[in-house]
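Annotated sample (chain length 943).
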Amino acid sequence: MADSAVGFLLGKLDRLLQDELRLLGQELHSDFRYIKDELETMQAVLRDANAWAEADETTKAWIKQVKSVVHDAEDVVDEFVLRVEEQKGWHGPFRFLRKITHFIKHLRARRGIVTRILEIKTTVRDISERRQRYDFGSAQTQASYSNSTRNAWHDLRGDALLLEETELIGIEKPREELISWLMGSGSMFGVASVVGMAGLGKTTLLKKVYDNPRVKKHFDNHVWLTASQNFKRVDELMREIIKQLNEERAEPILSGFEAKTGTILQLMVKNFLQNSRYVFVFDDLWSMPTWEAVKYAFPRNPCGSRIIITTRFANLASSCIENCGYVYNLQPLSPKESWTLFCKKAFISNDENSCPAHLEQLSQNLLRRCEGLPLAIVAIGGLLSIKDNSMMEWQMVYQSLGSELESSDKLKSMERVLSLSYDYLPYYLKTCFLYLGIFPGDEPIECMRLIRLWMAEGFIEEKRGKTIEEVAESYLIELINRSLIQIAEKTIDGRVKLCRVHDLMREIILSKIRDENFGAIVSNASDKKPHEKIRHLSICGNDIMWLNKSFPCLHSLFMVGASKLSHSSTRTLFCGLRLLKVLDLRGSRFVVFPNELVDLFHLRYLSLRGTNVKMLPNCIKKLKNLETLDLKDTCVSELPIGILKLQRLRHLLAYRYRREPDQPFHISGFKVPNGIGCLVSLQKFCFIRAEQGTSVIRELGRLSQLRRLGIIEMRRGDGFDLCSAIEKMNNLRSLNLSAMTGECLSLQSLSSPPLFLQRLYLRGCLEALPHWISALHNLVSMDLRGSMLIDDPLEALQALPNLLELNLIQAYSGETLCFKEQGFQKIKILKLDKLRRLKWVELEKGAVPQVEKLYIQRCDYLLEVPCGIEHLTNLKELKFSNMPTDFVAKVQCTLQGEDNWKFAHIPLVYLVKSVEGRSKRYPLTRLGLGSSETVTPESHSQC
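Output written by the structure step:
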């Protein structure tokens, strides 16, 4: 992690030395240059040390010193830039007087900065000399550490390989599936991968498959190779393979291999296996080069040979498969399997392995933290097996699980296995991963929020040809591929919307961020006070006593849901946080924008989401570094003219949803000043009001970097200017337009729509469907609301090649909708809502073949269930919401009559009705092979 911090600081020093050269003076400039040169050398050493420093105590101490001096240097640079910025503000007739006053007032502070720079220079010199004095980081030290780590790792893996099958839980189904693949598909050669996070039991599973008597008999030759993260030389790997092949024979066939090298070794293996049916397990693969180094030694013969790889990396798993292979995603144990395994380990002294009644709830709580991870269940169960069966003893384990991971021998091996994934992260991902520790563990994390925060903190490196958001998203995907972050929810097109971290992995993160003063979460007054040099702080709830503490080095502050936050307390707090980059006050209950915020010059991310703030002051223009301004669900309805000074602003969100269910246009946006086109860095701009008599719509054409745009209260006359502006937005991905009540959207003059547009939401009357929609080949989601089209819109939409979701809400005034054969080939979600005159829906065979969810609601004149619904073989959910009584009765009769076979393939068919202002869901049937059952009504929170 230190090397990423050094890289970020080097960038700052570069800019400082270039931009503020005259202000520094020759002496200070020389000091900064010396610090920069030394840090560049340290960064190179840190990157080399990245893969071996975790167990080398001398190196760990040195890296900790580097981190400390880097953080100090960064703070000094930020403080210096702040002073420079204050000097730039001296202007006007009293400039000289103000300059003298300011100089006298801040003379001590200026001297303090100079003193700190000299101290840092001395410290950097000492750290550099210390490394040379103790000679760590040499090739010999690295080799010694590498060998010791490899031995320790193999010891850990040996435990998994020696387990008896009777000790294992939940292995039967995946074992049989893999055996079936190994012995199936005739003579075809194949490579498959088993992938999952550390501790899921990949090695254990493969070992039981590999040792199965049927597998042993089926294959002529067997090789098990453990790669691990310590990549051996290719020659060593090949010699290990030959050794195993020889051991299967009474007399070694491949002799003299010890003296061979390179391609000769590979040819020996390849020639030997050319006519053999072999099975090869490559366990714990960490990199593609390791696989590339050995894969060509195994002939792709027509003998039914197989290769299976285990890995923690999803992208690596998919890259290695060949021919009839596949990726097997190993899943966590089910709750029932987890309970069985837990009881077996925790109550080993009990003949029946049964849990005492007084410990059952605590056991379930502990088990939930394991989240089905076999390694964790076994380790924690083993720890509890030596404890007294008292509630107090078990409660202490539950509350102090994080510290137990660090101190208990029973849990140390598990902690090591889980930590390896972090230890061997590339330098640029470590800080990003640790940052997840500042989020509460009981709720998923919004991915776009996380990406914006990473950007604001300076964790993302710029790459040519990519926006910084795209680079940040690639970081997120890489962490997911490494099984360090779990996907909690995806968008319709497969992008990650919400993510989370496994509870035990989060405990490891919290341990690391505490050790490094990186960050902390405090939730009540009894929590241990964070170190004053902490850089990231999250305060949960209303314990605002922490506001009286001094955290001068703080870079980010999260105060989510602080309902007792007062105007006076914020004034005291923000005056002492001059280096703050991130401030998230979402859900805090204050009404007036704290003016002290505008003095936070380094602030890049400001969230007032869900607060009661009604207006922004014009002095917000002082936040020149602001990149994200989140005003969603506030009462702000107009932006001040000072917003135009925020030239670095990339994400501007200022809207809220009204909750009236009968309002077709329920988004409240904000009024923007003329001149908004100067904010050329904007990427997300939602939702602005199209004010009559202003040039706002025309100015949008200057915002060529926009990815998402939302406009409300449009008039027919805005159409031409809007279309002209959209034609210049080559990067636009999402477009959301709403007409003013009684007005129409006029969009026909758009000649060349954005090529990469993926989401289109049109709310308001349309005289005709815009002709250009049929050219949106990248469109994945479309929402037509209140369009009242006379002509059937399906004709123009059915050929869109990538459309996955279509919502028609009060969008069509005809009586018939016909989904043609071969139409909508990829659509997964289809909603028909408030089509008041609709009587018939026809689904021709071959239409919407991939649809999984079909929602029909408030279609008052619909006579019957869509004709041809039996063709929708992938349909998983059919919902009727607030439909007429006679229609519901007809559906029930159909389900109970001779035509019920048409619904037999649909797992869930249900009705949603509003009862006393609340929606309730009534499953009409749960059909399986033609059978049905009666289900009592149940509450349902959403339609």
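Annotation: The domain at 148-329 is CATH 3.40.50.300 (Rossmann fold).
Annotation: DSSP finds 28 helices and 32 strands in the chain.
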